[in-house]
Amino acid sequence: MKRASRALVAYSDSEDEALTDVPERKKKKLPSLASSFIVPVPVDDPALHQGRVRTTPHVEGQYAAYVYIPLVVQYGTALYSLIDEVLNVIKEMVPAAHAIGEIDTCEKSGGLVVNNFHRVRELHLSLTRPIFLRAHQREEFKQAIKLIASRRAPFQASFATFSELTNDERTRAFLSLEVGAGHNELRDLLSALSPTLRSLRQRDFYSQPRFHVSIAWALLDPDTLANGDANTKRRPCAYEEDIVVEDTSDSNLTSNGDIGESDKQFQAKSFPRVPHFPSELIPTLNQRFGARVSSAHIGGFNADTIAVKIGKDIFSWPFHSLS
Q1: In terms of pTM, does the model score above 0.90?
Q2: Residue closest to 240 by CA, chosen among 313, 176, 161
Q3: Distance between CA atoms of residues 237 and 168, nearest Å
Q4: How far apart are CA 307 and CA 314, in angstroms?
Q5: ∠ CA(118), CA(74), CA(71), 5° rounding?
Q6: Which of 11, 127, 167, 259 is 20 to 30 A from 214 in CA distance terms?
Q7: Torsions phi, psi of 12, nearest 5?
Q8: What distance in Å separates the CA atoms of residue 278 and residue 70, rounded to the nearest whole number?
Q9: Contact 62, 132 (CB under 8 A)
Q10: Chain segment 147-187, per-residue pLDDT in tens
Q11: Which DSSP letter does residue 54 get?
């Protein structure tokens, strides 16, 4: 029995053309969004931040934050005068240094200024590294800090010595006053903060913390760091509240991601940098001012408030006695 052969169907040229000549549908062009719906992307400009640039890229909906104890040093106090003297010395030895925490305030009554402007220094004693919160985490974090404040009593602390510290990225050096008395109470605060930080998948503070406030800073020379300067390698590292974290804007990058040579020269002229503080700076300061800064009536202060900065907003709560 023979099987019937299958006929092959051949399509004519006209049928091919009929398949290929189908006109393409025109794509409808969607209307452009109104400018009010477009979120502007932040542009990093070191000129607006004294040469500082980001190390952590901007992420929409993410807020940089850190926790600290504020220390307001009033004009005319012994500590204010001492810091002024120290800053005069560092300006002579490190002309590229910048003072920290100098602000002008005025007293008002009924919306009217009733007193002339007067100067204070607001210094920060950091209790966390920089942390990054999503929008929905901000309120939870604030409530956690508020609860910690309600369970802590105010305590006395004092400074012990001058030191030089750098940030984690080793892009800036800081002249700092390290805390002596009060160290144990500050460590207890770190322990109280730790569960909240871990629940948010954030890093704890340093395992061997050097509690301090910084009073001046200077940009470090990246070329010196890259070449492995021996003095720089010996510098201790401790995080400073660098919420303007370091980076370079795309316009300053070459094809391989490095800062262009012309931009390096421009930044060097605009924002002077140092390989490190002079080796004699800290011994000089401790010799001239160490006894005064470590005395309780000058270097002593009351730690009675905890604060958190989230983005541009600052929230603070007083410590409450447990008794």
Answers
A1: no
A2: 176
A3: 6
A4: 7
A5: 130
A6: 259
A7: -75, 165
A8: 29
A9: yes
A10: 999 999 999 999 999 999 998 888 899 999 999 999 999 99
A11: B
